[in-house]
Amino acid sequence: MVYLKSSFVFLLSVASIALATPVKRTVDQVKADIADISAKVTSLDNAITAFPLTGGSLLAALGIHNSAGALITTLQTATTDVVETGPLGEEDGAAVLASVQAFEPTIQHALVEIVTKKPAFQALPIGGLPALILQDLKSLKANTGAFSDALISTAPEDLVDTATNLRDGILAGFDPAIAAYS
């Protein structure tokens, strides 16, 4: 009985040490996260673009909300992975920056489209949909900012200005959409 008790205590100790030890992420994980973000940005943009100006369905509108939620979760995970990876080397920093620059126009397109589609969302028989979209936009902006800040903090010094300008442009794109739904 004492042997079982001490074995159990040992296993709990090992498990708690393993859980308390931070896992070092890799640049490859960050690149995979960015690819996942890009795919989710494209999916969200496609869902918004496909939503008709009249006659849209509640199911399609909730699909847009679900796509936004999936993107928010991915941004949160990616932010953690970037922070835990630490400073990026020149080559990796340039590759990461180029990857984000590649999907920046898709973000901007989605933000313009969501404003264009506001009357269609308002016309749906559920009253709180514009408020839900506003909540999604605010959360997307906050999580995009956190992710961008993490990338900037790990970027090579010569890429910081370019990364900062990219972040600022993306975040500014949220402002008209947030204003439209406020």
From TrEMBL:
Gene3D superfamilies per the UniProt record, alphabetical: 1.20.1280.140
Superkingdom of the organism of origin: Eukaryota
Keyword annotations of the record: Signal
Keyword Repeat included in the entry's annotation: no
Signal sequence residues: 1-20
Any one GO CC term of the record: extracellular region
Name of the protein: Hydrophobic surface binding protein
Pfam family, one: HsbA
Organism the protein comes from: Hebeloma cylindrosporum
PANTHER family: CELL WALL SERINE-THREONINE-RICH GALACTOMANNOPROTEIN MP1 (AFU_ORTHOLOGUE AFUA_4G03240), HYDROPHOBIC SURFACE BINDING PROTEIN
InterPro entries: Cell_wall_mannoprotein_1
